Amino acid sequence: MKLHSAAPSPFVRKVRIAALELGLFDRIKIIDTMVAPGKTDDAYGQSVNPLRKIPALELDDGAVLFDSQLICEYLDSIDGNHRLFPAEAEARWRVLSGSAVANGMMDAAVLVRYETFLRPEDKRWNQWIDEQWVKINNGLVWFNQRLPEAEDSVEGIALACALGYLDFRSPELEWRREYGRLAMWHDSASARDAYALTSPEG
Ligand code: BEZ
């Protein structure tokens, strides 16, 4: 299998952690793929992912899976033990809801990064940037009150990737000062091998 990736992407990290947790990482070849606005790889859009997003997983038969959540679900199905996506309904809806919030926090944090790092200063829309921060902060409040039950569910993995990306690209946020329960949860999750091996800070 080939995983189209960019090293700093929190969504790619989510898939890498899932593969490591499931013991499938050795079956995956990492392919560096450029997707930043203004520098996108056109051939990738034509031959792999029409949306030109990463991650995308090319299977050995040529089929391509898009989107980190779907790729994680596929890897979990190879393992067959419902480790990332619980089978039981109540646990499953809880994990899927939590991972949707964490994925949204990652989306907002990546958009802020693009807006503040790539877009020329005189063209920035500060109100829009502030609205992304509100989403991120609301997510931090939500998780601080409702920690994931498992560090290695797709919810726990997505949350650790969202928090790790904030530390990596937006350390000035200092989210640990206000969200002590979440900080303790993240310290514990980050000690797992799969998380430490994929830390965006290297
Ligand atoms: C980043 O540099 O922060 C980044 C790169 C690719 C995808 C997402 C984020």
Query: In which order are the strands of the major sheet placed?
Result: 2-1-3-4
Tell me the span between the first and last alpha carbons.
24 Å
The number of E-state strands comes to 4
The secondary-structure class comes to: alpha+beta
Q: Measured on Cα atoms, how large is the radius of gyration?
A: 17 Å
Proportion of beta-strand residues: 5-15%
Secondary-structure element pattern, one letter each? EHEHEEHHHHHH
| Helical fraction | 55-70%
**What's the pLDDT, averaged over the residues?**
96
Largest beta-sheet details = 4 strands, mixed
| Distinct helical segment count | 8
Q: What is the top-level CATH class of the largest domain?
A: Mainly Alpha
Low-confidence spans: pLDDT under 50, at least 5 residues?
A: none
Shape: globular
Topology-level CATH name of the largest domain: Glutathione S-transferase Yfyf (Class Pi), Chain A, domain 2
Provide the number of structural domains: 2
CATH architecture of the largest domain: Up-down Bundle
Small-molecule binders here are:
benzoic acid
Helices and strands, with pairings:
Elements: E1 2-5, H1 10-21, E2 29-32, H2 42-47, E3 56-58, E4 64-66, H3 68-79, H4 89-118, H5 126-145, H6 154-169, H7 180-190, H8 193-197
Parallel strand pairs: 1-2
Antiparallel strand pairs: 1-3, 3-4
Helix pairs in contact: 1-3, 1-6, 4-5, 4-6
Bound molecules: benzoic acid.
Residues 6, 8-9, 35, 110, 113, 169 line the site of benzoic acid (BEZ).
